[in-house]
């Protein structure tokens, strides 16, 4: 009878260990997805501001139909928040590219999302 009880205890400990491991993995996946969605939301805000810059005349401090001269500081005074760090990768006449790097690490690298903004649409690229 003692061996059976010992076997049941070992089996119970093993099942609890597996349940904890699965729970931790699910929590990490949820945190990564939540961070990615928050970064996409923030990049949408930056894209809207970039398009406003594009449509504003040069005399009013805008681009006058171009993204040339656009800086991340012109989009927002806050380029960091609890979600991530944002930077302007490039800006030319037809398009600007804004990168968001999350504060949550996924595997070996941080969560990274890029948005390409032009006159008509935004293209979101999930890098990691």
Descriptors:
single chain; four-stranded antiparallel sheet; alpha+beta; 2 helices; 128 residues
Walkthrough of the structure:
- The protein has helices at residues 2-55, 72-75; strands at residues 84-91, 95-106, 109-118, 122-126.
- The chain is an alpha+beta fold and 128 residues long.
- The chain has one domain.
- A four-stranded antiparallel sheet has the order 1-2-3-4, covered by helices on one side.
- The longest helix has 54 residues, at 2-55.
Taking all Cα atoms into account, the compactness measure Rg is 23 Å
* Chain-averaged pLDDT: 90
Structural class: alpha+beta
Terminal Cα span: 53 Å
Strand order in the sheet with the most strands: 1-2-3-4
The helix content is 40-55%
Strand content: 25-35%
- Residue windows where pLDDT falls under 50 for at least 5 positions: none
Largest beta-sheet details: 4 strands, antiparallel
């Amino acid at each position: 009878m003692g061996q059976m009880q010992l076997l049941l205890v070992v089996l119970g400990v093993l099942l609890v260990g597996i349940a904890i491991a699965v729970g931790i993995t699910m929590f990490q996946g949820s945190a990564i997805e939540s961070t990615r969605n928050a970064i996409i939301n923030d990049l949408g805000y930056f894209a809207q501001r970039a398009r406003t810059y594009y449509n504003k005349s040069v005399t009013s401090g805008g681009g006058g139909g171009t993204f040339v001269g656009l800086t991340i500081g012109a989009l927002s005074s806050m380029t960091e928040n609890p979600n991530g760090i944002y930077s302007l990768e490039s800006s030319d006449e037809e398009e600007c590219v804004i990168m968001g790097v999350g504060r949550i690490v996924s595997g070996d690298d941080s969560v990274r999302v890029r948005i390409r903004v032009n006159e008509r649409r935004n293209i979101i690229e999930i890098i990691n």
